[in-house]
């Protein structure tokens, strides 16, 4: 007999939508078998009940056997051997339909008993198991729903124990019921053949013994055919017994092995978290908003397929796209007092989804898996190996190793002659083998034991007065587009550049150098590594406003300025070469951990856009500010030149006035040197006393000049 498709008992605990879909096919097949066997039973019962209608009932039986090949059994439609066998039976029964008489006793024992047993015992057993399984499945869903609603803030050990025990009991009951139900459905395929063949065989044997007409109607060829059918029935029964024994053993083994898995939140020491996954599947609770403040949680089966997150409801044949998780961001969140929640945000920031896992292990594995897929590790040949290498590198990257320092120690003298760069463009590379890295040791980039700040703290704290003075007051509501509100004028209102970007703050730390882009690269490496080791997935989202005066971090909800970075204090900025969404800048401020008056702090962010665009915007802002400063200096210089010219003009005018006065004095002196003579008209020239004195002074001056 050909092989029969079976329900996988090993997958009953997972209870995936594919298993449920396959179960639906088997249930549909069982319904078709029940309908067909009821018809066949009625036909044979007519043979048993109606002696006068025996011929017609036999003809109907023959007709039904001929129609077997037209039946659309989902699992047995291609059984040609079975169809040909039944076709042969239908021919023989049709030939004997006119010869049959009352066969009450023999037909009751040989024909009606097997099919009645199949109908009353086997088919009813399937229906009973189906009802029990449906009840167990509903109880399990209800228990999972109550467990998911457990409060994280107000934990009650008694309630938690009762709910956990309820989940354990319902899951165990569902698993055991489902395994027995699968076993019964698999066995039904064998019993179906037996229930079809055995009554027919008994019917034919009853006909032979009753009429004793073997020599006329039942020849040797037909006896050989019946013998072969009897042998086939025994083989099917033997195969069924072996398969049932195997399935029973599998059920026992799975019951023992699956007992720890019935607990919804298993012990992490026995089931460690796998952070190197690039594919994962399982049930999650998805949050759906139904109003402004109300929401519902739907439990669905989620699985990753390439760079996509797929969802599939129970009973669906295939899953649908839930979200594109290439270059996405994922982080743990607190949502509606539920545990193990995390949020996925698409690469453009336009779509986000909040999901809830069943356990802490699933929660961390989902976050790590989506992070690995977001980095497109799944596109490589050995994704899990590369993911393991990346995670191992992250673990080793928190503190520089001595071997790393020694590897660059030999390169240090060769690169000391290179001048340091004051700033870098957005084309900087975090992982490239730059010779600038050889010029600086790791200790010269980041101070040892430097603390890392993972969240934004208002700069007006008492312990950081220098930063508060440099950054300006925080907490003031700011219009991100530079428009004025009321009578107060915005600081950046006159700025010709206003660009807004969505960013997430990763961390900041104090650095020892601010004249080389490797400072930004090393800070990125240490902050990302520290986040990976300490399982810090939460990031503060802000709006970064780039203007010609400063950089501002603005709260997207309240439009309150969280931090202000003066643009002249931003001395260095760079992006990550492999992950273009990462960028950072170095801010030079007064005060800090060092003993000197100035300190440098490196800030690292993740953006929805490419970090190069933000760095280009900052560079453009600095260029505009530089040109504005140059124009201001040129204007001041021009004003100074005009003031000098005006002063020179005044001095020149004063000098001319002095020369004019001197000429007038010389003329008067020359006139006073002439002898006092009378005019032709008898008139005299009379000099005043002042003119006389001036003439005397003029003569004395001339004498001095002649003597000189």
Automatic annotation (TrEMBL):
Task: Specify residue ranges for compositional bias: Basic and acidic residues.
Answer: 645-666, 699-708
All residue ranges annotated as the PID domain in the record: 501-637
Membrane disposition: Peripheral membrane protein
Q: Name one GO molecular function term.
A: beta-tubulin binding
Q: Which domain of life is it from?
A: Eukaryota
Q: Which GO terms describe its cellular component?
A: actin cytoskeleton; cytosol; early endosome membrane; early phagosome; glutamatergic synapse; macropinosome; nucleus; plasma membrane
Bias kind Polar residues: ranges: 673-692
Domain (PH) spans 277-375
Compartment(s): Cell projection, Ruffle; Cytoplasmic vesicle, Phagosome; Early endosome membrane; Nucleus
> Where does it primarily localize?
other
Question: Region labeled Disordered — which residues?
Answer: 397-433, 645-708
PANTHER family tied to this protein = ADAPTOR PROTEIN, PHOSPHOTYROSINE INTERACTION, PH DOMAIN AND LEUCINE ZIPPER-CONTAINING 2, DCC-INTERACTING PROTEIN 13-ALPHA
Q: What is this protein called?
A: DCC-interacting protein 13-alpha
């Amino acid at each position: 007999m050909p092989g029969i498709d079976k329900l996988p008992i090993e997958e009953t605990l997972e209870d995936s939508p594919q298993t449920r879909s396959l179960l639906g096919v088997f249930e549909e097949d069982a319904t078709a078998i029940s309908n067909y066997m009821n018809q066949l039973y009625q036909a044979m019962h007519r043979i048993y009940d109606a002696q006068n209608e025996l011929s017609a009932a036999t003809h109907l039986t023959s007709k039904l056997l001929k129609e077997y090949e037209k039946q659309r059994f989902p699992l047995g439609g291609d059984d040609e051997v079975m169809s040909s066998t039944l076709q042969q039976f239908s021919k023989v029964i049709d030939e004997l339909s006119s010869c049959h008489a009352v066969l009450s006793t023999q037909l009751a024992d040989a024909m009606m008993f097997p099919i009645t047993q199949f109908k009353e015992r086997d088919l009813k057993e399937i229906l009973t198991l189906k009802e029990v399984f449906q009840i167990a499945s509903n109880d399990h869903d209800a228990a999972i729903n109550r467990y998911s609603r457990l409060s994280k803030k107000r934990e009650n050990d008694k309630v938690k124990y009762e709910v956990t025990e309820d989940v354990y009991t319902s899951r165990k009951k569902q698993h055991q019921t489902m395994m027995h139900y699968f076993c019964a459905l698999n066995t039904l395929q064998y019993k179906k053949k037996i229930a079809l063949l055995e009554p027919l065989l008994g019917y034919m044997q009853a006909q032979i013994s009753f009429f004793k007409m073997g020599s006329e109607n039942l020849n040797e060829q037909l006896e050989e055919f019946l013998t072969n059918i009897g042998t086939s029935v025994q083989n099917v029964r033997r195969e069924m017994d072996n398969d049932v024994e195997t399935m029973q053993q599998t059920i026992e083994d799975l019951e023992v092995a699956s007992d720890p898995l019935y607990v919804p939140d298993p012990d992490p020491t026995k089931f460690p978290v796998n952070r190197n996954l690039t594919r994962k599947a399982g049930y999650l609770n998805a949050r759906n908003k139904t109003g402004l403040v109300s929401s519902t949680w739907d439990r669905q089966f989620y699985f990753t397929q390439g760079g996509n997150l797929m969802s599939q409801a129970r009973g669906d044949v295939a899953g649908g796209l839930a979200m594109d998780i290439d270059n996405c961001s994922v982080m743990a969140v607190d949502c509606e007092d539920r545990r193990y929640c995390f949020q996925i945000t698409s690469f453009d920031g336009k779509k986000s989804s909040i999901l809830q896992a069943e356990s802490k292990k699933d929660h961390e594995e989902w976050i790590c898996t989506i992070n690995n897929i977001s980095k497109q590790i799944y596109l490589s040949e050995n994704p899990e190996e590369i993911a393991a290498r990346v995670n191992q590198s992250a673990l080793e990257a928190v503190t520089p190793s001595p071997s790393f320092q020694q590897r660059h120690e030999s390169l240090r003298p060769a690169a000391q002659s290179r001048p340091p760069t004051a700033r870098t463009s957005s084309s900087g590379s975090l992982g490239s083998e730059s010779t600038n890295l050889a010029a600086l040791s790791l200790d010269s980039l980041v101070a040892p034991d430097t603390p890392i700040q993972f969240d934004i703290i208002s700069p007006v704290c008492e312990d950081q007065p220098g930063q508060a003075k440099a950054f300006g007051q925080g907490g003031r509501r700011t219009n991100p587009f530079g428009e004025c509100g009321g009578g107060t004028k915005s600081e950046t209102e006159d700025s010709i550049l206003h660009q807004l970007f969505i960013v997430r703050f990763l961390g900041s730390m104090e650095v020892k150098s601010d004249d080389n882009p490797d400072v930004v690269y090393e800070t990125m490496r240490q902050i990302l590594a520290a986040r990976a080791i300490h399982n810090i997935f939460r990031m503060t989202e802000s709006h970064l406003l780039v203007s010609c005066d400063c950089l501002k971090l603005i709260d997207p909800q309240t439009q309150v300025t969280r931090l202000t970075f003066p643009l002249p204090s931003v001395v260095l900025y760079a992006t990550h070469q492999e992950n273009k969404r990462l960028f950072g800048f170095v801010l030079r401020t007064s005060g800090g951990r060092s003993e000197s008056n100035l300190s440098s702090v490196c800030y690292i962010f993740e953006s929805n856009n490419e970090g190069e665009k933000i760095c280009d915007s900052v560079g453009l802002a600095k260029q505009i500010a530089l040109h504005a400063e140059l124009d201001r200096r040129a204007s001041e210089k021009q004003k100074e030149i005009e003031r000098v010219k005006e002063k020179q003009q005044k001095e020149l005018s004063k000098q001319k006035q002095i020369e004019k006065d001197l000429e007038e004095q010389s003329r008067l002196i020359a006139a006073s040197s002439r002898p006092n003579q009378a005019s032709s008209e008898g008139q005299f020239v009379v000099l005043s006393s002042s003119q006389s004195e001036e003439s005397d002074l003029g003569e004395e001056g001339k004498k001095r000049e002649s003597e000189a």
